[in-house]
Write a structure and sequence with these properties.
Elements: H1 5-9, E1 15-22, E2 25-32, E3 41-44, H2 47-68, H3 94-107, H4 111-146, E4 153-155, E5 161-167, E6 179-180
Antiparallel strand pairs: 1-2, 2-3, 4-5, 5-6
Helix pairs in contact: 3-4
Length: 194
């Protein structure tokens, strides 16, 4: 069932406003990306006039689409509304604080920037680790079943031995190396044998 014109006009579309200089004067362009930047726009000598023009165009476009039975896009999801502020307090011991501060100083950056970089690096590492750990476990299980003579094998990502890919990981006395041949990306991960 199609929604009403009123429903679509009240949706919280993001409105983008740009300022252009035309013949030495400011001209404001307002548009809604989801409805087409070059189709659903308004312009005016002030922001308010551009927004009023946009509202009229939006009403005409949505009315037309409803009459034709065409799909009308919903607003893009707003991911920033539920984000935390980006500020939090971390309590740590003075020695670690001093060590981090000295490292930041030696790099010529602020303590805040350095801690932010450390956190970002660790988050990325955990994401990569969580993605690859199950893959490595499949390969390890394959190696355990087949007990190969060589420590370097050709294995696909499902853990089956094939030609075309080299894999190297250190796990349970095996050293496996992953190097996709058709990709410039070389993924290497080493685990300690225990």
């Amino acid at each position: 069932m199609l929604n009403s014109l009123k429903y679509y006009l009240e949706l919280p579309y993001d409105v983008h406003i740009e300022t252009h200089i035309v013949e030495g004067k400011n001209v404001y362009y307002a548009h809604i990306e989801e409805l087409g930047k070059h189709a659903c726009y308004g312009k005016g000598s002030t922001r308010e006039k551009a927004l009023r023009s946009l509202d009229e165009t939006k009403k005409n476009i949505i009315s037309y689409l409803l009459k034709k039975g065409k799909a009308i896009p919903n607003p893009a999801p707003r991911i920033d509304e539920d984000l935390p502020s980006g500020n939090f307090v971390v309590r740590t011991n003075p020695h670690l604080h001093q060590q981090i501060a000295e490292q930041a100083k030696s790099l010529g950056i602020s303590l805040n920037l350095y801690v932010n970089q450390l956190l970002a690096r660790n988050v990325l590492f955990e994401e990569v680790k969580n993605y690859f750990d199950p893959q490595f476990d499949k390969i390890h299980n394959c190696l355990e079943k087949q007990k190969p003579d060589s420590n370097v094998l050709r294995i696909n990502y499902e853990g089956e031995i094939i030609e075309g890919e080299s894999v190297e990981i250190i796990k349970s006395n095996y050293r496996i190396k992953i190097e996709p041949i058709e990709s410039p990306l070389r993924v290497k991960r080493f685990r300690e044998t225990g």
